[in-house]
Design a protein that fits this description.
about 70 residues, 3 helices
Length: about 70
């Protein structure tokens, strides 16, 4: 069996939406929307992109420039 790990992206938004709608919620916080919609997936993936950019910026000393761009949006 071949297993391939891939980074989530917007191409998989419907698969991620389906997974989140089928999860057992009794052990999860109520912050996960129910029902989980495609817009929720887009928001989550955009948030993850932002966090990754923040990490990269901190590592490369560009944090202030990135924060200025975010505030202007």
């Amino acid at each position: 069996m071949k297993v391939e790990l891939r980074k989530w992206n917007k191409k998989y938004k419907y698969e991620l939406k389906d997974i989140c709608n089928k999860i057992d919620r009794k052990y999860l916080s109520n912050r996960i929307p129910n029902p989980y919609k495609a817009e929720d997936v887009i928001w989550w993936l955009d948030y993850l992109d932002y966090v990754e950019k923040m990490k990269e910026a901190m590592e490369s000393s560009e944090l202030l420039l990135l924060m200025e761009k975010f505030v202007k949006q």
